[in-house]
Amino acid sequence: MTAIHDDLPPQTSTVERAVTVLLMIGLAVLVPLASFFGLFFGMASDGCIGNARCSSEQITVGIAVSAASPWIVYLVALGFVIVQWVRRRRTWWVPVAALVLGAALWALGGFIAVSGVG
């Protein structure tokens, strides 16, 4: 006779889950800071004086990407962690990947905003 849960992978360790929670808390602290500092890319428009050709739409898109991407990446990572816990899989790497992806998107938003200045 087999048990009901024989087909599930083994439970992840308590230490692994604690590490995931601590990393997600660390991300929760960084997300509002990154979003706030993403708004500072609006200062790129300070170079739009005189005859400089600037794209205000491009600067706006860059600001939006830099300000919104940390929140979006965090919420997706949080959802993914929950799904992986239900499936009894390792999750420590999810906040690390979210940090790398969030930083890359934040920098991409900054690049978009700055490249809008002629």
UniProtKB/TrEMBL annotation:
Q: Origin, by domain of life?
A: Bacteria
Q: Where are the transmembrane segments?
A: 20-41, 61-86, 92-114
Q: Which UniProt keywords apply?
A: Membrane, Transmembrane, Transmembrane helix
Which protein is depicted? Transmembrane protein
Identify the species of origin: Nocardioides zhouii
